[in-house]
Amino acid sequence: MSTSAEIARPAAPSRLARALFARFGILLVMPVLLGLGGLMSPAFLSTGNLSNLLLQFAPLAIVAMGQSLVMIVRGLDLSVSSMMATAAVIATGFSGSDRDVAMVVATSAVGASAIGLLNGVLVTKRQVSPFLATLATMILLQGFRFAYTQGAPSGNVPPLLRVLGAAKLGGIPYNSLLLLGLATWLAIVLHRSAFGRRIFIVGGNPVTGRLFGIRSDLITIACYVISSCLAAIAGLLLSGYVGLVDNWVGQGYELDSIVACVVGGVSLKGGRGSIWGALTGAAVIVVLANEVLLLGVPIQVQMIIKGAVIVIAAAFYTRKDSLSGD
Amino acid sequence: VTGALSLRSAMPWWLRSNAALVGVMVLIGAVYLAGTAVSDRFPTFNNVLNVYEQTTDLALVSIGQTLAVLSGGIDLSVGSLISLTCCLTSGLINGNPDRVVPVVAAVLAVGTLVGLVNAGVVVVLRVHPLIVTLGMGAILQGMTLLYALGPVGRVPRSFSFLAYGRVLGLPLGATIAVVLGVIIALLMRYLPLGRQIYALGSDADSARLVGLRRTSALMLVYGCSGFCCAATGLYLAARFGVGQPYTGVNYTLASITPVVLGGTLLSGGRGGVVGTLLGAFLIALLNNLLNFMDVSKHYQLVAQAAIIILAVSIYVDRRGPE
Questions:
Q1: Interface touch A143/B309, C-beta < 8 Å
Q2: What is the 3-state secondary structure (H, E, C) of chain B?
Q3: Among all residues of chain A, which has the CA nearest to that of B318?
Q4: Would you say the pTM of this structure is higher than 0.95?
Q5: Which of 236-255 (A) contact B at CB < 8 A?
Q6: Residue A295, min C-alpha distance to chain B (Å)
Q7: pLDDT for position A22
Q8: Is the pLDDT of residue B320 over 80?
């Protein structure tokens, strides 16, 4: 009996190590990436560049956190980029002075909640596939936006939003402070609250969830609403960062945020993921983009490198994941 | 839900197993009837033929997308691949009629090859097709822009025949799309590998346990999708006469709409190419009707989204009770 215990013992730590690696392996990528950047150019590790990285990191990280919630409940939110652009258009829709910031935020919140609700209801009550439901709301928002702006948005972003989106407090951008607050709140909600446990149960096994008496539809809808609202916040921040608004603020964030989540270990099949995973994934994407820029290669080559890295990063991470289909 | 269920069980078997196909045909009929009230010219044979012609590009790209979705995956590289093949076509032909045949063959080969690479990466690296084809899309867009930053090349008149020509009174491009679609639908039905694609999409684990050839099936699926993208690229080059590096960008997501409207489940395993062809026709018909109604381009987007939501939430195909 003691021999069998001895045989079993060495297997346990290695399995634990493998599980830890599968969960936290992505963290190893960050020092490597940062070290590579430092090797490529001393300017990369300067405080100035790092604080700029933070500035670019915050909007994507905020969207990715929302995306991760939706992905955990077996969904996808393709409407985030359209929601961002819509929030940005709303930001310029009022007088452009600080008096109207409250109105801007309120309007964006109402709009984002409505879109999140629509996504959630379509997915749960009508059983539309998340991909298609959010694709439709993406097009819907785009249509409304173009109709409202007649194709060419005008107007100014309120100064307060510009401060929030672009200014720094002693080298730390305001938007990262906001991100820190949101991330803390969401991490508590997802990983430390009853609601968070229910999110994982609904994503992991909806049938069990229903048998437990969890109102899975409500949980799912809440995740879509949170995702839309976070996208709206990111859109407002980005409009402050860019300063002027066009109809395509945030374009590409829908796919980038999904990639960030996958790289950060959020399962495309639901039931698995974490807030810090989404944050790490977003960091990898932003740092990589910055490094490719430092290499000074033409934009076309940057796209090629980015595409290759997406696949390789996902391969590194999803190797042990059952969703890979093998 | 119980109402819908009892309705379903009351249907005859042929209706129940083809509910999505019947649904999309009913929608086409409804749009057509609505159109008769809008304009006298809408229901004419010539206009319907126009719509048929306008379906070509969407139909071509969606045929391949259908296979990808049926196998439980998705192909998000279609937009970039269309841009690349379109640029290659006009850039390599560059107005020289003698080069048409070899370039067409080469472009179709390039498209198929890209699809095979997609499948290979999915199999070897074991990454979800969504991520693989997304990455491939970025790579291909970069390559396209390396080849041409702006409009490139031109095509001879003989090649434009592909887009504007009529054979037996029917538009050539659209007819090629339909023939291709029907051939692929038949292959999916009668080829063992075609049945295996359905099996793979409906339950990948069981498919592996019974020893289905996943690699060959995925090669066929993504190879076909690449081939269809190349065909779309050829058609667009013929239609516009010039290759643009961003021609295909909208097709990535647009190609999914007809697939779903045609009753193919995004989770894979159920549906088919014929439904997709009808779905593409429905979208073209709808756009045509909105043009007749003088609806601005912006509201056309709203209307299109609304109809997708409406259609899909009404006849959404359920996999049965969980």
A1: no
A2: CHHHHHHHHHCCHHHHHCHHHHHHHHHHHHHHHHHHHHCCCCCCHHHHHHHHHHCHHHHHHHHHHHHHHHCCCCCCCHHHHHHHHHHHHHHHHCCCHHHHHHHHHHHHHHHHHHHHHHHHHHHHHCCCHHHHHHHHHHHHHHHHHHHCCCCECCCCHHHHHHHHCEECCEEHHHHHHHHHHHHHHHHHHHCHHHHHHHHHHHCHHHHHHCCCCHHHHHHHHHHHHHHHHHHHHHHHHHHHCCECCCCCCCHHHHCHHHHHHCCCCCCCCCCCHHHHHHHHHHHHHHHHHHHHCCCCHHHHHHHHHHHHHHHHHHHCCCCCCC
A3: A127
A4: no
A5: 255
A6: 16
A7: 64
A8: no
